[in-house]
Design a protein that fits this description.
heterotrimer, A alpha/beta, B alpha/beta, C alpha/beta, A: alpha/beta, Pyruvate-ferredoxin Oxidoreductase, domain 3, 6-stranded mixed sheet, 6 helices, 6 strands, globular, disordered N terminus, B: alpha/beta, Rossmann fold, 16% strand
């Protein structure tokens, strides 16, 4: 959507511990494996734990320029502070994916697609609150079609370990995330 | 049988040292060179020299040398030994180099228990720069920056490096000897021999402090300077073993 | 070749190992900590040694000692640590020892901000220590280039028996990108350092003295002249720069590292709007690609916009020297650890364009 290139910039924001960086890194790994250019950039501060965390992933078929832009194509907001802070950064025509388990005040913008996913609730149903970030990735790839379920699942297998029960849990979380938004139309 | 007799060690260059008349640095150079010859280590040795009068030894020694910047010899020796564990590595440092600007480097090299030998020549003064206050200058001893003598209220007391280093757990051998007399020089050579053997046996860090003189900057003749050592230096810095694993075991 | 998705700092560490690096000493400082962490695990696997030093000063002196044994050695830090290492970097140059130093830049002066910045251009290119020596300074703009230039930094260091510097901002150190790694090079001990060392040794045919301590002025001058010739040779043979969209450029962005790749996005956007803008990206900051700027036609190029994550701008001195007042040089800067964005670059350039037009009216 940006400047006539196939480039997509995705920002992920949330609390430390919500798996913000994992979401970004998995999108980056999977894009790399899919033969695309990708760039994962974490924002860091002096604190080691706690506070808010955010990262941006740029995925492109061409050479990636700026690691950091004021505007992004997609915001994945896992908590209310991130949603409030970064929703205005989404470009017109872009996408906003909200963790509705934690975000209650949804911004009213008619120029972007807005989807909600009850990621914490779905994760609990799946068997572990820890897979909420995988649910979110599922919802995102379902709506963006930027990567396939298999591409993400391969990245999960490579990066999060091959333990059978964990893999099964992540697979279920990914599928449930995808299913949860499949029938949703953007409110706009 | 070859006739026994004095012979210039192969580990020394054929030249007169650049040291001042009466200075014991030349003696220390010779002890090291003799021992390297006796151990057959000349071709395996990398000596790490300091900044200070010790630097002048680079003109005297006849084996591989690395000259460190001021105080950093123990760090340089760490890099040498870790990358070339088959080489015999010693540092040669004065009291300004080791106990002032290089205090951090010597303490941490000792604390890591690096398998190197540190030879610390303590003459209680900055020699090469012309006689300024050293961390080891004695109370009341005059220097060009304490012309009334060392006043502990202003600059503290002389630092006892053997005592400090022997508080650490890793060092295997920490001793102080003096170069004031022939018997003590022989004792010093024995200590160096032990320290060298420790490294060859892979035992870790050895530290030999050698109390020495500086006739030029003390303003004394050689014999007066040795007398002064006995009357002052050796009273404050007792010779002895501060860590000796064999003795302890 | 397999593409891996790697963090800049870890990619540099692995590239160093593959380039033959077998010794690393360093001290923790943000934003480069992944380099020592990675090498603490990796170097022992290839028969190398890693030491976490008690200080930056000790770390660079351990590198000096390792290099003296003919080992390819490296240290890394960020600006404040490079300041502390400067004594040892100068000694490496003085003793003619090869080593690679990596500076993952944050902002300054002083302790500054730990976020990405390009605050150490002058330190890197002018004085990473006393005594007037120089180093080849490589400035990567991507993780792949960080890998390639780290390998090149080792090659140049070994070729010249001189330290070389890889200078990147914290963004490239922290970000992850696809990267192809070079094969693991066979290691061999380098010769001992130093022509100066040899001439110091009066008798020795078989012993080597590694030193930057030259007691005779005539020896020192001989070495200084040799070094000056080497720096001139770099200027002829080792200069690296990228020119992007320069064929018809009327406006030129001068930028390196993250600023340069950020400017590329802005240039694509501006080109879509019909603005004829191009980029000159120095890849070696020393030797500086002065020729690329000196060649610019002042009748065609209206201005150069020097773009840096540093306030005040630092590279601008070299750009100005290269164009010798024939072309106006403007700036687009940010600092404090605030990332440059493509919007920043576009807006700054558009502001300058409108000023130009007002000037004409």
């Amino acid at each position: 959507m940006s400047g006539g290139t196939s480039e997509s910039k995705i920002m992920v924001g949330g609390f430390g511990g919500q798996g913000v960086m994992i979401i970004g890194q998995l999108l980056g790994y999977a894009s790399c494996e899919a033969g695309k250019n990708s760039l994962f950039l974490p924002k860091y501060g002096p604190e080691q734990r706690g506070g808010t965390a955010n990262c941006t992933v740029t995925i492109s078929g061409e050479e990636i320029g700026a690691p950091s832009s004021r505007k992004v194509d997609v915001l994945i907001a896992l908590n209310q502070p991130s949603l409030d802070a970064f929703a205005p950064a989404v470009k017109a025509g872009g996408m906003l994916l909200i963790n509705t388990s934690l975000c209650k005040n949804i911004p009213s913008r008619s120029d972007i697609a807005i989807y909600g996913v009850d990621s914490d609730d779905i994760a609990r149903e799946t068997g572990s609150p820890k897979v909420a970030n995988i649910v979110v990735i599922g919802a995102y790839i379902e709506k963006s079609k930027i990567l396939t379920e298999e591409q993400i699942f391969n990245a999960i297998t490579k990066k999060l370990g091959r333990k059978a029960e964990l893999l099964a849990l992540n697979r279920t979380a990914l599928k449930k995330g995808m299913e949860s938004v499949r029938s949703l139309n953007s409110p706009n | 049988m070859m006739a026994a007799g004095y012979k210039r060690p192969e580990s020394l260059q054929k030249r007169i040292t650049g040291y001042c008349p009466g200075c014991m640095h030349g003696q220390v150079n010779k002890l090291i060179a003799e021992l390297l010859d006796e151990f057959g280590l000349r071709e395996k040795t990398i000596g790490v020299l300091p900044i200070g009068c010790g630097t002048l030894s680079m003109m005297n020694f006849n084996f591989d040398l690395v000259i460190a910047t001021h105080g950093r010899a123990p760090a340089v020796a760490t890099g040498v030994k870790r990358s070339a564990p088959d080489r015999f590595v010693f540092t040669y440092q004065g009291d300004g180099d080791l106990a002032a600007i290089g205090l951090s480097e010597i303490m941490h090299c000792a604390n890591r228990g690096e398998n190197v030998t540190v030879i610390f020549v303590n003459n209680s003064i900055y020699g090469m720069t012309g006689g300024q206050l050293a961390p080891t200058t004695l109370v009341g001893q005059k220097s060009t920056t304490t012309v009334q003598g060392r006043n502990p209220k202003e600059v503290g007391y002389p630092m006892k490096m053997c005592e400090l280093i022997s508080q650490l757990q890793a060092p295997r051998y920490v001793v102080r000897r003096a170069l004031d007399s022939v018997p003590n020089v022989i004792q010093a050579k024995q200590a160096l021999k032990k320290a060298f053997q420790n490294q060859l046996d892979g035992k870790g860090f050895s530290f030999v402090e050698l109390l020495s003189n500086c006739p030029t900057n003390w303003g004394l003749s050689q014999s007066e300077s040795l007398e002064w050592m006995r009357a002052n230096t050796m009273k404050y810095f007792p010779i002895g073993d501060f860590r000796n694993e064999e003795a302890a075991l | 070749m397999e593409k891996l998705f790697m963090k800049g700092n870890e990619a540099i560490a692995e590239a160093a190992v593959r380039a033959g690096c077998r010794f690393f000493a360093g001290y923790p400082i943000t934003p480069q900590n992944e380099i020592p962490e990675y090498l603490s695990r990796r170097l022992p696997e290839v028969g190398g040694a890693f030491v976490q030093a008690e200080s930056e000063i000790s770390a660079i002196n351990m590198v000096y000692g390792s290099a003296a044994t003919g080992t390819l050695a490296m240290t890394s830090s960020s600006g404040p640590g490079i300041s502390l290492k400067s004594e040892g970097i100068s000694s490496l140059a003085g003793a003619q020892l090869p080593a690679v130093i990596v500076n993952v830049m944050r902002d300054g002066p002083g302790t500054g901000a730990i976020q990405a910045a390009q605050a150490d251009y002058l330190q890197a290119t002018r004085a990473s220590g006393h005594g007037g020596f120089r180093m080849i300074v490589f400035a990567p703009a991507s993780v792949q280039e960080a890998v390639d230039l780290t390998v090149k930094a080792f090659e140049c260091a070994a070729r010249d028996s001189n330290p070389s510097l890889v200078l990147l901002d914290g963004c490239i150190g922290a970000m992850m990108e696809p990267v192809i790694l070079p094969p693991l090079k066979k290691t061999e001990r380098l010769r001992y350092a130093g022509a100066g060392a040899k001439c110091l040794n009066p008798s020795g045919k078989d012993v080597m003295v590694v030193t930057s301590t030259l007691v005779r002025p005539d020896f020192q001058e001989v070495l200084n002249k040799q070094a000056a010739e080497m720096y001139d040779r770099w200027g002829r043979e080792d200069v690296m720069a990228e020119e992007y969209q320069m064929e018809d450029a009327e406006y030129v962005v001068a930028a390196y590292g993250t600023s340069a790749r950020t400017a590329k996005t802005a240039i694509r956007e501006l080109r879509n709007e019909g603005v004829r803008v191009g980029l000159i990206r120095p890849i070696t900051l020393y030797p500086f690609p002065s020729g690329a700027f000196a060649r610019l036609d002042p009748h065609k190029v209206k201005f150069i916009m020097n773009t840096e994550m540093s306030i005040p701008a630092q590279m601008i001195d070299d750009v100005r020297l290269a164009v010798s007042n024939r072309i106006r040089v403007e700036t687009c800067c940010c600092s404090g650890g605030i990332m440059m964005t493509n919007e920043d670059v576009s807006e700054a350039l558009k502001n300058l364009l409108s000023q130009c037009k007002e000037g004409v009216e």
